[in-house]
Write a structure and sequence with these properties.
Elements lengths: L4 E2 L9 E2 L1 E8 L3 H13 L8 E9 L24 E13 L8 E10 L8 E9 L16 E9 L4 E9 L12 H25 L14 H21 L7 H23 L13 E4 L5 H8 L4 E5 L6 H4 L11 E3 L1 E3 L1 H6 L9 E3 L12 H16 L3 E6 L13 E8 L4 E8 L7 E6 L1
Helix pairs in contact: 1-2, 3-4, 4-5
Length: 441
């Protein structure tokens, strides 16, 4: 196996050899390896669900990309590896999902190419992660307790065969846990996970995989995630503690907080921030099939006027019910929606106060669980197309739209000829569960 050594004179505090942990043969070349590793550098959430994203602070190889901020005060940690020369240096800040549990971590990522020699025909490429935290006790949980992580790719052009391996640069005593060998076992599992994902993505690209879906086209990932974190810290504890339903609050609370974060950021682009000088008046929203009413409650708490209704009242409505803009002056109503065409075909004398016909001109449709409403969806669309409105089917968990390969579809289309704008974000989940929202323009 290729030996990696860091000269102590060039890298203070990091003298010593890298310890190999996992190795596996592969059939993809160095170009695929580097492309895959760059994707991992930009999307660390592919390797661990504990992370939201990586904010790029410095990139000496990103020419002409205006999305990357200029070099900050955080400077890259220079690392020299014998037998390799650096080709690109990136400094990223790892952003955790739970900022109360873990802190962000700055990390230098260096891409290397092996020095060509006549003794060995193989082509070697290397990617090294160096955390800027040197105290193992202060490293967050999502990062292994090591001084550095290295991914090595070796390729033989003559045989079109190669291997990938994961190496760690350990601290002085190799382990910092009370239990005997506990850190070594964890490092073995971490290396196996890193190597398995690298091999999977590399083999997929070598087989011709092409990404077909572009994510975060409506709302930037950074804004949506930051807003979600803000809402979670503000509302999550109180909402879970006061949960009145028999269902698991963890699932519903954080799901609706994520949806609310996405909507708030989208509406900020469309109308401006609530209460901000110069912003357009917010037209209001209606959540049809609102269920427990939590999403309506969160949005109203954040200053967005609107209401929701469902076929029957839920236990939690007692906690969320306030005076609102519904037909009966409440924020949550027990009503049933029928398309306007169906209502006109019926004897209107049989309509009760639990029937909300599509004739009401000020309210717009919000759908959830579209497979339940499929027979009527086209009738709803025809009904709404005659009015100036914005339609937004929202994914059940919009935070997943930031994770590539999860079946997310995002698209936006404008139809000015009919005097309306249609915005759609959807995610396939089982039977294509969705939520949607109609708003007046």
């Amino acid at each position: 196996m290729h030996s990696l050594v860091l000269p102590g004179s060039l890298t203070p505090g990091m003298a010593g050899a890298w310890t190999p942990f996992q190795r596996r043969t592969c059939s993809f070349g160095s170009d695929v390896f580097l492309r895959t590793m760059l994707n991992f550098v930009r999307h660390p959430n592919l390797n661990t669900s504990w992370l939201f994203r990586a904010d790029i602070l410095f990139d000496d190889g990103d020419h002409g990309n205006h999305d990357v901020p200029p070099a900050s005060a955080v400077q890259p940690r220079c690392v020299e590896v014998q037998g390799f020369h650096p080709t690109r240096t990136i400094v990223r800040r790892l952003i955790p999902r739970n900022t109360r549990r873990d802190q962000p971590l700055d990390q230098t990522c260096v891409l290397y190419e092996g020095n060509k020699t006549t003794q060995s025909p193989s082509v070697c490429s290397l990617v090294v992660y160096i955390p800027h935290e040197t105290d193992p006790a202060r490293l967050p949980f999502y990062h292994p307790k090591v001084r550095g992580v290295a991914h090595l790719h070796e390729w033989d052009p003559a045989t079109n065969a190669g291997a990938v391996s994961v190496h760690f640069c350990l601290f002085d005593n190799g382990t910092h846990d009370d239990d005997d060998g506990g850190n070594r076992k964890r490092l073995d599992r971490t290396a196996l996970q890193l190597l398995g994902l690298l091999h999977k993505h590399g083999q997929g690209q070598a087989a011709g995989y092409v990404k077909r879906v572009q994510h975060d086209v409506l709302v930037a990932q950074v804004r949506s995630q930051d807003r979600y974190t803000q809402l979670k810290l503000k509302h999550a504890h109180a909402l879970c503690a006061s949960w009145a339903e028999k269902t698991n609050p963890i699932k519903h609370v954080f799901e609706d907080l994520a949806i609310a974060a996405f909507l708030i950021e989208l509406w900020a682009d469309m109308y401006g921030e609530v209460g901000e000088q110069g912003s357009r008046p917010f037209p209001g929203f209606v959540d049809i099939g609102c269920g427990n009413g939590l999403l309506v409650h969160i949005l109203r708490q954040e200053g967005y006027a609107g209401w929701g209704f469902d076929a029957r009242e839920r236990k939690s409505w007692g906690n969320y019910q306030t005076a609102g803009a519904g037909p009966n002056g409440k924020s949550l109503e027990a009503l049933v929606l029928l398309p306007r065409l169906a209502v006109e075909a019926k004897d209107t004398t049989t309509t009760t106060n639990k029937l909300l016909s599509g004739k009401r001109p000020r309210w717009r449709l919000c759908q959830r669980h579209v497979y339940h409403l499929e027979p009527r969806r086209r009738a709803h669309a025809v009904d709404a197309a005659t009015r100036r409105c914005v339609r937004l089917p929202v994914p059940l968990d919009p935070m997943l739209q930031s994770q590539p390969g999860r079946g997310t579809v995002a698209r936006a289309a404008a139809d000015e000829a009919q005097g309306r704008v249609r915005v759609c974000v959807s995610r396939r989940l089982g039977d294509a569960n969705r939520r949607g929202l109609w708003l007046a323009r």
